[in-house]
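Example record for the data management plan.
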Amino acid sequence: MATDTTGQGMKTPPARRRRGLVLWLMLALSLSLIGGTVLLSNDMRHLRGLAERLGYSFEKPKPVAALPRTSPPPPRPRPPVKPVLASIEHDPRLMEAPVDELAAAFFRTWWTTGPAICEALRKAGIETTPWRAAAMSGDTFECTFQQIYKQDAEKPLSSVFVIIRGDRTGAIANMRAKLVGPETDTAGKLDPAAMRIFETLLAQPHWQDFSAMLAAIRDLKDAKEESFGASISFARETTSDNSFNFIIAMKAAPGPQVRTRAYFSAARWLEMPEQPPSEKRPPYFR
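Corresponding structural encoding:
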């Protein structure tokens, strides 16, 4: 049997059939694009209408709430700039430098110690004992000086006695002196040797406002001064016209009370003038 070598006997798909399939695919794609455009156009109103006819609920998507904008943190405050103080010139008379000698005139305090006063008396020629415990009390310390010039069988006729008392640390409690039959000059003034005792005792505390007491002591006249808690007195004994007692002490009143009483003392203020009758005063003073 002879074979067909020309290939005419093989079967091939028809070309028209494939062309028709491609055409239909392109037509379907075009219609899909057109339909999608129509449905999605006009804010998807056609799509929502079609969905409602077919029984589907079509809700409009809720807009996403915009996140609140966070404001940037406030800048840190800068540290305040200290202003430069301008220098002010003033009259030197308005600002006085503090004077240590006058400081005790307002707030009274001992500006020295017991041992220092005892040493000052010795330098002035008054030979006191050392600062030591008292014979009757171990808590009290003192130094003393006693000189008898004349004496009879019963008592001294002329003598001087000085005692400074305080505590172990040297804090002063009081200073006392007693004169019996003191020597005087022709004018009746106290002997300079005895005056050195009182000059030293009044100079050591640095209380300058009490310096006027020296004149009364020199004339052997009674005198008493009280100011800012300190008290100084020089008085004749009631039992003897020729004996005198001298004492310097600090009062135990509270500091504010002492300062108030001293500030409003009569010595610092003028006396109130005599007030006229009320009918002669202005209406707002009646």
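Summary line stored alongside the record: The first strand starts at residue 132 and ends at 133.
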